[in-house]
Design brief:
alpha+beta; about 240 residues; Aminopeptidase; 11-stranded mixed β-sheet; 6 helices; 2 domains
Length: about 240
């Protein structure tokens, strides 16, 4: 059963997941027959409506079916954005280096949470994600289901990242660094903080979906690619 605030649907053809009322939903584990494309696109559109999200990320791999799935989805109205197309699924099972001089830990207060969220939003600079109001941030904090971690440099939050803890390790999302703090170890420190949390839970492994900016850093920390994703996008109709 999904956590409060999450929408989840798993079928033999794919898994759909979203945070209710946010911007993006995910379509993963896609195994379609050639004649099921149109139905799948319609079902994802209905899921966007039900979860109050506006955009779906379709995550394709070499295991997705049919073999020409990408072309079929593009023909059905999905789009491809070359600057957000190729992503690496990466895994770390060995201890990453400690970052001296940078404090990193889970955020503990609403004030820290609000600052960390704003750092993450500014770093991603996604025009499709509106800036949350103070009331929206307070509601997010009150219903937080995935811990948020931050690193501090010169007394300011410099980098952030979330973690979803499972029985086999932690899945990392939302890693971002403020422009003024890049090159100072803050991103690496947030990775290390989540590694330490996974070790405390007895599950010393980290998994992450890495874009072109974060992948080189993660490779230097010891992450290795286990799968490559191709991302397509569909948008909920305004009608």
């Amino acid at each position: 059963m999904p956590a409060p605030g999450l929408a989840l649907r798993v079928t033999r053809r794919y898994a759909l997941a979203a945070t209710i009322g946010q911007t993006y939903a995910a379509v993963e584990g896609i195994r379609l027959e050639a004649g099921e494309i149109a139905d799948a696109v319609a079902e994802v559109a209905a899921f966007l409506q039900a979860s109050e999200t506006s955009r779906a990320s379709w995550w394709l791999t070499e295991r997705s079916t049919p073999d020409d799935l990408e072309d079929r989805l593009l023909d059905a109205g999905c789009t491809r954005h070359d600057d957000d197309y190729l992503h690496a699924a990466m895994l770390l099972t060995a201890e990453p280096p400690f970052v001296p001089g940078v404090a990193a830990r889970e955020v503990r207060t609403l004030e820290e949470f609000a600052e960390a969220r704003r750092v993450g939003l500014a770093a991603f600079a996604d025009p499709n994600i509106p800036a949350p109001t103070d009331d929206e941030l307070r509601r997010e904090w009150d219903s937080l289901h995935e811990p948020l971690y931050a690193a501090w440099v010169d007394g300011r939050i410099a980098a952030v990242g979330r973690a979803a803890f499972t029985t086999v390790g932690a899945y990392l999302t939302g890693g971002a660094t403020a422009a003024w703090a890049r090159g100072r170890g803050a991103y690496r420190a947030v990775v290390r903080a989540r590694w330490d949390a996974a070790v405390e839970r007895g599950t010393p492994a980290l998994a992450v979906g890495a874009g072109p900016m974060s992948r080189p850093i993660l490779e230097r920390l010891g992450f290795r690619q286990v799968l490559q994703y191709r991302r397509l996008e569909s948008v909920r109709s305004s009608g």
